[in-house]
Amino acid sequence: MVHVYNCHPFSSQQIVQVEQEPGLVCCGGGALFLVATGGCKVEAYSVEREGCPLICRFATMGTVKSIQHSKIGDYLVTIEEKNSATYLRAYTNWRYQAEDKARVGVRLLGHLLRGASVRGGVQMEIIEIPLSERPVAVACCCITGDLLVGCENTLVLFTLRRQNQQTLQNQSQQILQSTWPNTQQSSSQSQGQTSTSNQNVSILDFERSVILHLPKIKAKRVALCGGYVAVQAELEVLVLKLDASFEPKTQEESSETARDHLEDQADFLLLPRHQELLGDRAKDCDIPVSIEKTGLEDRGQYTLSYVLFRRFTPDFFQGCSVEETQLHSLQLCPLFTSKQSVSQEEPACVFCFFSLPTAGYLYSLKGGVELLSAYQYPEKVLEAVLADHLLHVITKSALQCFTVRCAALAARIEDPYIDTTMKACPPCSLEVCALRMQLFIGLRSVCVHGRHVILLSTADTETPEESERATQRRGLELKEHTMLTGIFLAVGIDPATTPALESLLSRPFLSRKWTISSPKETRTVGHGWNIYVVDTVSPLTLYQEMVEYSQKYAETNPQAQSLRHLLSEAHLLLRASLLQTSGQRQNTEGEPALSPETDTGGPSEKQTDREELEEALRQNCAQLGDCFSRGSQKDCHLALPYYRMSALSVTEVIARNRPLPSSPHSYGPGFLFYLKHYLLEEAEQSLSQEEADEVIDIFSQSEPSQLVSVCASPPMVNISPERTLRILRRLEDTAGVSVPLTITMATMMLLMDDVAQYTQLMERHAEMLLVYGFIEEPRLLLHGGGGGQHTHVCPTVLTRELAKSQPGLLVAGMVALHENNKVQLEQADHVFKELGCENCLQVDFWEAMLMASSQDAVIQELLFRLSSVYIDRLTITSSDTHSNHLHTRSRRKSLKSADDLINSCSHYGALYPWLTVLSPAHTTSSQHQEALYKLQSLLCGPSLSVGSVGPLMERLSEETLWGFSLHLLCATRRGQYGRSIEKLLDRCPQAIIAYANHQLQDKNMVLWWQKLLPELCNRTRAAADNGILLAALKETLVVVAMEMSPAEFLELIPDDGTASYFLPHLLTCSQKHLVA
């Protein structure tokens, strides 16, 4: 389906003043090229200047049958005929003919001009390009400047080469010096006469790179763009991708060149079946392609892949012949995005367009082949041209424009956020529309350059192609009539005597070139012809007209599909313009230098144009957001990205979506979807009280179930608590009691400073149920979050109240939010710091997290943090200078004591028995004792790595007994038992037996007699009256006697020992041995 809108894409037109009737027209490089009918002269006119003045004219070497211009290299290529022979020629430096420089150089492909012609300055050159077959069509690549030539069954690719003129002159100088030594002086003099600007001009040449053999398709038109090769026959289109690989590779040549076209069937019409093969399926077509590489300098290999194949069945209708149902207007168009660099030759998108007289087809080739648009023409189209913003088509009497979908695809390639909740763009499948038609008489040809549409009209004349086809058709019809008449006469029937047979034989049956239309009457040949340059309006002007046109739909039916479609067309028009302005640096690469009059504006003016386009795009997004906000449920989600792209504030969006007086309680689903996402996604902008109350009214009328989430949203901080509380109570009456609703109502009470009612509401539910309520709606406790660990979060009013009145509930809620991935650890730390509880509730939160978490990385982080905190507390409490600071920081008692943590958390281990000897209770303050026990418990537990807290432990002195106990714990955890025994005997020998009984077990049992017994013997020998050491020695001997044999025990007794002291232990050892 094609929508039709009465918009005006054309602004003005002018007639080019030419002397002779033009036969061929093409444009490029700011110029219009005309070839007179049957003539051998090319005239170039400037389409960028008022009145299209003549740039230059120059003669060709033959009658021009086809002409093309290349943007890269600024050269012309022609197919010419002379003396019944066909030639392919390229014309370079043609602009210098405007300076009355009659000198023209003619050379063969690959043979650069040298000698005097080069040293004399820049001149126009005609390059003869020899071919083994007659050329039928030519195409130039707008990215590389390469040349593709289509012959009947082959395609020849020529690579554009550039060579600096200074290099050529040096080479020529060397040749002259080696050949004629006496000419060195004259050559240097002539070289000095050459201007510096001429020396910097590049000389163009071509190199034959590759030949493609297509034995089963007869090329009528060809196209080339960035490695994509397209060939069009009468009813077939084939697109190939040609890639150059520089790795040596054996190229398999196809030897199959058999033709299916039998000679005896040449006069019959074979109707092919319709076929469309996209992507990898295109290789299944019945058209083999073989590669013949001919490049001399390129050592790489070419690989070929099929991209697209389309075959049509002839569509004959009244008044049309076979020739008039053929394909035409083949094009390959690249599109760059703003993210591509200047030197990047690979376009982001490549599009292929071709057309039948009744329908046109636009395909996207990169990133998956797909049909973007199918154009159904209202009448027979003679020619079509795909431009940046529009598709221009001509009939015999009109020029018409259609919209295109190239920008929709390019925008998605450029911006990955399109088709998300962040950004949107109309789909590539959006139905196309036709704009206003411009009437002309006798249109024959159309071409486009920028915003200029060039038309050739020849009223009441017949083109040379039509004349040739008519002559061939009449000859074939005569041949058929004669043959059939002979057949009837051979069987004895004279058709002349039977009118019915005579009428039947007047129609062509056997000829392949047949028609069902009546022959055209002979017309008097006229002489009316014109060249029109029609200027299209700027995209911004066309956009503004589309917006004005859309107001008609908005006034009658704001939800009309046509309104949405027209605004989507305007959106794509603006996107295409933005892509073009950002990609102008790619387009200008290789363009010839234009005159100052053709410069449309400096950088500042272009920047202003872009800003105007961006502002228009924002306005369009707001209008599209309005459409989708009131639209159906199917597309209502698109209101969110369009409103975001419009840069409207939520206040402005609310104002645009207030219900009409006719429907006072109706809000569109798209608007509600936008509003919910705005409130859910932690917007920083706060609504005023009036706006917040209006939002509450909107949801109370449309979606009451969302009221709790709405009230908890950060933008709603200025909400009226009394008014909202009444609405929430009505909701509770209708929907029933729920924990999140109760907490929300309690928050409203806090905002009203009604602590008693707040307490009553919070006591409705147990603490565990309240925690579940926080999980269901985390924003009751926190504003922010949800965007990663670096997202800023802050506490709510309820959180601050819980920190004062119910710290345990706050800690439990924060732990639950963390375990349910509602908040990150760093975000929770930030909340406690904002509450001023970083040394009390924050530590309680870490301890609770250590009990609840199962993530090893989080556990290790928490163990390190808690160890650091405990060490800080021990350091501070041990200093008298911090007594006041200590009093301030320790006002609140920890939620969990050391015993609670030991009993409920596996990471806290039970205290070793010998620690009670080293740090007895009630020797320090309760805060100090609590921190000491918790740190000792962590060191006694299985999870804390001693190596991680070793540097922190250095802050604690061993002078105090509790400090010594911590260092001794670390040494023991490291396995330094011998050193620990020595230090313990030095500092606190009364704890040695308790230490040995707990630590010297299993594999460490040998330390009783290898380390502890010798140490005690030595120390008691030095201090015989030390009762503590003697008691420890006695306990040690009891353990050793139970573990060793009598012989081993005797060896351990010191030589100077008292026999009566060791004899009882030896007797015990012997009795144990006998029993065993």
Automatic annotation (TrEMBL):
- Give the InterPro entries listed for this entry: HPS3 (IPR017216), HPS3_C (IPR029438), HPS3_N (IPR029437)
GO terms under cellular component: cytoplasm
Q: Where is the BLOC-2 complex member HPS3 N-terminal domain?
A: 3-166, 195-474
Organism domain of life: Eukaryota
Residues in BLOC-2 complex member HPS3 C-terminal domain copies: 541-1073
| Protein name per its UniProtKB record | HPS3 biogenesis of lysosomal organelles complex 2 subunit 1
Where are the annotated coiled coils located?
none
